[in-house]
C-alpha cells in the first residue's frame, strides 16, 4: 500500500505519534487521503466500476449520448425531465444513460426540488487507458477530467 485512508483526527493522532517516535513511521505509507475515491483520483487510478470494455465505452459515447453531454454543457437543465425534453428522448432512457455516465465519472447527479435530480457535467474530457494484455478481454480504465 502506497497510501493510507483515514479521518483528519486519525491523521492528527498518527502525526503526533510520529513526532514522539519517528521510528513508528518506518515502512509506513507517507500519503494520507480521506477516502479511497480521493486517493484514486489523486493517484490517477481508476475507481471500481470505472473499468469497462471497449465496446461498452463506444456505446456510452454514442452520438446520441454525446448530444446529451452537449446539452448539459450548454443548457444546464434543472432536471432529468428537462434534459429529456431538450434531447427529444424519453426520461427513462435519459435516466439510464445518466446513471452509466455517472458511473464513468462524467456526470454527477445532485438533488433538486422534491424528488428531482439535477444532472451536472463534471468532466469535459476523458482519458482512456486500454490494457492490451488483460486475461479476460480488453478493459478500458476511464479517467474523467475537468476542462483545462
Please characterize this protein's 3D structure.
By secondary structure, this protein is an alpha+beta fold. The chain has 2 domains: 3-43, no CATH class; 51-145, Winged helix-like DNA-binding domain superfamily/Winged helix DNA-binding domain (Arc Repressor Mutant, subunit A, Orthogonal Bundle). Helix content is 42%, strand content 22%. The protein is built from 6 helices and 7 strands, in the order βαβαβααααββββ.
List the helices and strands and how they pair.
Layout: E1 3-5, H1 8-20, E2 31-33, H2 36-43, E3 51-52, H3 54-60, H4 63-75, H5 80-87, H6 91-103, E4 107-111, E5 117-121, E6 125-131, E7 139-145
Which features would summarize this protein structure in a list?
Arc Repressor Mutant, subunit A, 2 domains, three-stranded antiparallel sheet, two-stranded parallel sheet
Amino acid at each position: 500500500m502506497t497510501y493510507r485512508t483515514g479521518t483528519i483526527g486519525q491523521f492528527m493522532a498518527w502525526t503526533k505519534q510520529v513526532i514522539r517516535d519517528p521510528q513508528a513511521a518506518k515502512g509506513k505509507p507517507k500519503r494520507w487521503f480521506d477516502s479511497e475515491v480521493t486517493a484514486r483520483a489523486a493517484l490517477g487510478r481508476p475507481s471500481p466500476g470505472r473499468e469497462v470494455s471497449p465496446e461498452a465505452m463506444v456505446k456510452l459515447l454514442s452520438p446520441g449520448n454525446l448530444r446529451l453531454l452537449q446539452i448539459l454543457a450548454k443548457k444546464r437543465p434543472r432536471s432529468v425531465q428537462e434534459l429529456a425534453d431538450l434531447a427529444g428522448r424519453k426520461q427513462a432512457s435519459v435516466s439510464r444513460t445518466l446513471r452509466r455516465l455517472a458511473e464513468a465519472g462524467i456526470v454527477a447527479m445532485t438533488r433538486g426540488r422534491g424528488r428531482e435530480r439535477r444532472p451536472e457535467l463534471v468532466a469535459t474530457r476523458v482519458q482512456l487507458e486500454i490494457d492490451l494484455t488483460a486475461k479476460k478481454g480488453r478493459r478500458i480504465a476511464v479517467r474523467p477530467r475537468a476542462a483545462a
